[in-house]
Amino acid sequence: MEKQVGIWIDTKKAIIVTLEGHKEEKITEIDSEVENRIYHNKESNKGTFSGNRHGDSETKFDNRKKEQMDYYLDSVLDYVKGSDYLYIFGPAETKTKLEQRIQDEKYLNKIKLKAVEAADSMTLNEVVAQVKDFYNPLQRKLNLAHRL
């Protein structure tokens, strides 16, 4: 039985919708702990000086944010390891970072990445509907025809 997965992702959270046969969809939400701003105690903070070395707060923030993003993407990928097909959508650039990570990871090669698309913020029901429509466009057409 094929396992079809759709992921709506941004820097705050990922919503993973798994479709497997005719079973009801499984929904998993993963909250991100990726920082989005540098918070200084003082507005004029220019980092720290230690002898000849200067520790820039922005550099430390960028490094910490990269580590947090890597951990977040790894957490998302843990849920899709056994999938056959994958559909990724969402706002901003997190979806493309996830796509790149999938292409870089050798053990994920058996997963067929069907599409990566831009999408606005969505409710949980909209995310589930989007994934179902993506994997079963015929059913969507039937539902639309039935409404008319």
List the helices and strands and how they pair.
Elements: E1 3-9, E2 13-20, E3 26-31, E4 48-50, E5 53-55, H1 57-80, E6 85-90, H2 94-104, E7 112-118, H3 124-135, H4 137-147
Parallel strand pairs: 1-6, 6-7
Antiparallel strand pairs: 1-2, 2-3, 4-5
Helix pairs in contact: 3-4
In words, what does this structure look like?
With 148 residues, the protein is an alpha/beta fold. Helix content is 39%, strand content 27%. The protein is built from four helices and seven strands. The strands form two sheets. The chain has a five-stranded mixed beta sheet with strand order 3-2-1-6-7, sandwiched between helices. Strand 6 (85-90), helix 2 and strand 7 form a beta-alpha-beta unit. The longest helix has 24 residues, at 57-80. The model has no long low-confidence stretch (mean pLDDT 82).
Main pleated-sheet profile: 5 strands, mixed
What order do the SSEs take from the amino end to the carboxyl end, as H and E?
A: EEEEEHEHEHH
Count of individual helical segments: 4
Strand content: 25-35%
Unreliable stretches: none
N→C terminal distance: 33 Å
Share of helix among residues?
25-40%
Instruction: State the total count of DSSP E strands.
Output: 7
Strand order in the sheet with the most strands? 3-2-1-6-7
Rg calc: 20 Å
Shape: globular
Question: Helix/strand/pairing class, anyone?
Answer: alpha/beta
Q: What is the averaged pLDDT score? A: 82
In short:
The protein contains four helices and seven strands.
